[in-house]
Amino acid sequence: MSEVNSVPLAPPTAPGREHFVRSVLLNPLGLAAVVILVVVVAAAVFAPLLAPFDATAVRIFKVNALPGEGYLLGGDGAGRDILSRLIYGTRNTLLGALTVVVVACAIGVTAGLFAGYYGRRLDLVASWIFDALMALPAIIVLLALYQSLGSSIYLSMVVFGVLLSPGFYRLTRNLVQNVKHELYIDAARVSGLSDLRIMRRHILLVIRAPVVIQIAIVAGVAIVIQAGLEFLGLGDPSVPTWGGMLQDAFQNIYVTPLSLIWPGVAIGLTVMAFVLLANAIRDRMQSGGAAPARAVRREPARSGSSAMAAPADPDIVLDVRDLVVGYPDGGRDREVVTGVSLQLRRGEGLGLVGESGSGKTQTAFAILGLLSPGGRILRGSILFGGRDLAGLPEAGMRELRGRRIAYIPQEPMSNLDPSFRIGFQLVEPMVTVLGISRAEAKARALRLLARVGMPDPERTFRSYPHQISGGMAQRVLIAGAIACNPDLLIADEPTTALDVTVQAEVLDLLRDLQAEFNMSMILVTHNFGVVADICHRVAVMKDGAIVETNEVRELFAKPRHQYTRMLLDAVLEDGDTRAYTPRALPEVA
Amino acid sequence: MDEPVLVDCRDVDTFFGTHHVLKRVSLTIRYGETVGLVGESGSGKTTLGRAILGIGPVSSGRILFEGVDIAGVPPRERRGNAAAIQAVFQDPYTSLNPSMTIEDILTEPIVARGMATRAEAATRVRALLDQVALPVDAAGRYPREFSGGQRQRIAIARALGLSPRLIVCDEPVSALDLSTQARVLDLFVEIQERTGVAYLFVSHDLAVVRHISHRVAVMRGGEIVEFGECDQVTARPRHDYTRRLLLAAPVADPDRQAARRAELRAMSMKA
């Protein structure tokens, strides 16, 4: 039964409703699925109007008749019209599937909602019960029940629904657990909404799409199982169903092999339509409304004019010229960096400042060769150590990264693998990159940990990432970054996630290390305080371009560009504080 | 100190299991006042805010709101003005339900309290959007169509829906860009001056807190280490920890920053 649980758990970026339905229909497979399902449902609803004959009317001379002779699709083993039985069978088959879905959904979603929302003991008990249900072998239970309860296929389907409810339970419970800590749920509680209304208004909205997918899949499974049971003769023989027709056709397979095809096609098409519909909805959810972005290989940019027109100044470590970075956007490239030029001397710290969306991180990632999928360098050159990184294939970049160019990320914790000890994560790259022995690498790692200010390097070396604080994790990453004495260190908001006292310590460490190793450093940040603390020069970015590059003192004292001035004005400085004027008690409402 | 007090927290203790997160915290907020609450992560500042909101636990102690003890009373069971206490949270990307329209988001508190029918609430939405300087046609749109600063304005509008006397603001500007941050802070001040609402303004950023607060409380390890007038706490702190916090935040001036750095280093040496 495990296949029914394989539904994406990520909460959807739920878009507007009409929008959602329309985009599912725009997907060709989604449209085909919907068309098939509409036809099937119409056949079920209007069966008495559509069926040319009574589904149970027996005509002896039509037993196993071939298609065409009065019966469009021929007659079955008892002389009944196959087409009519197929149409009426739709009704019974869909009712059976509906029973399964309603029962499974009602039990599973309700229990999942409450267990996920309230957690604790309720969750424990419910999970225990549903785990036990899941462990039951469905087919055997159904066969046993047939023995004791008789031939009603609906009763079997109710039981089957109960057996499938753990899928809905687990899906719902996990989704609810994901969303219940969202701030908008807190806001709803502060607003005074009752738990039931929070579930109805907020949580159901989020879980509806995954549950609809699950329903589509379960409906398909239910049809197959139902047909299987009836094929085994466990259905009510007086009611026309697809499974029953299969059984009848199978008994006459040597007389009219063709009869087997019709119910088979009906089952196959309907199940396929359910699965395709589920896929279409899932695709829509995962793309979050945007057209699916195709990953474009990082192509070497054409750097015509920059053919090694490198400056003679040997002091310049990095020379970026007219860098343009783009992401595909509807057939064209959307440029996020629109011609950035910057130079970095040995031992110099350059601050790359700007607001979100200014392109500062994209510039840094382009230098590192770590653009997100789809992104590529469209024009310009990045000269580093006599080579143009803009045209360098990934293999060449890999060789440079970690050896001559190092990187410190914003979120230290997400850059450490939680399942490996810190020592291993420091030693492994050194062994691969520097080709030194494991023992040598360990000694070096311990020295580095001591250098970045770990009070007990041995202990940190043996720790897992969750056992250390965020500030310590950032020190570990710094230790890893400087392990190979890089020429260039690129730090992307390295202290933004840290507390202010820890930030001060990490900045101190970076400043000392930079001087000690005479490293060049690019520091991407939005914080002018950090810039003032650690940078020699500053480049201010806006809308993908640098609007001003200046010495740090000059920039703060005499900003040249209007935009820089605006940003500096927005910095909250020690002005006067607000004076409190006691208010008269607001009049009683 | 005969001034009427809006919120009076007295010896509030909170345990998470055996973990003592709030230690006999006492704090007052006057009518129309902003009390800044600063501290580093894990200091308990958010826990105190949630306790006042009624969505976090209180183990012992009292939280008097206009004289009535609301400690441990969930928002739904609060009455009168205590029921109108609202919140603006840090992350404007997760504090608004992505699948609800702005109108649905803004009318939620009003409808939940039975203060208006949906139709009346709809007219209220226009007024609320106007208060936070957003266009009226925002009502029918979804949160994803707005920038971070605009979303925070929507969150503020939602909080204003019940005409609250107190809004608990938990890091409301720390996810915003510098220039956006300044504008949203101005909006907070402007709304306070117009409506007389009081703020408990939780933040890790002393500069932000200094800009908006009348009084400031500094928390560390679940305790309030210093509580006083804004200018005194943020310019002439008495407690060593406050001084360290103050010096640790880098200022946008290379020379002054170098001096502060030296001072902080000297302090750490002594410690």
Task: Give me a quick take on this structure.
Helices cover 52% and strands 12% of the residues of chain A.
Verbal overview:
- The complex is a heterodimer of chains A (589) and B (271).
- Chain A is an alpha/beta fold and 589 residues long.
- Chain A contains 21 helices and 10 strands.
- Chain A has helices spanning 17-26, 28-45, 47-50, 82-118, 120-135, 138-149, 153-179, 183-190, 195-231, 242-251, 261-287, 360-368, 394-400, 422-434, 438-451, 457-462, 470-482, 500-517, 528-534, 552-557, 562-570; strands spanning 316-329, 332-345, 349-353, 376-384, 387-388, 405-408, 488-492, 520-525, 537-542, 545-551.
- In chain A, the strands form 2 sheets. Chain A has a 6-stranded mixed beta sheet with strand order 6-7-8-3-9-10, sandwiched between helices.
- In chain A, helix 5 runs antiparallel to helix 7 and helix 10 (242-251) packs antiparallel against helix 11.
- Chain A is elongated and about 100 Å long.
- The model of chain A is unreliable at 1-15 and 289-309 (pLDDT under 50).
- Chain B is an alpha/beta fold.
- Chain B is built from 9 helices and 10 strands.
- Chain B has helices at residues 45-53, 102-112, 118-131, 148-160, 178-195, 206-212, 230-235, 240-248, 254-270; strands spanning 5-16, 19-30, 34-38, 60-65, 68-69, 86-88, 166-170, 198-203, 215-220, 223-229.
- A 6-stranded mixed beta sheet of chain B has the order 6-7-8-3-9-10, sandwiched between helices.
- In chain B, helix 2 runs parallel beside helix 4 and helix 4 packs parallel to helix 5.
- The longest helix of chain B has 18 residues, at 178-195.
- The mean pLDDT of chain B is 90.
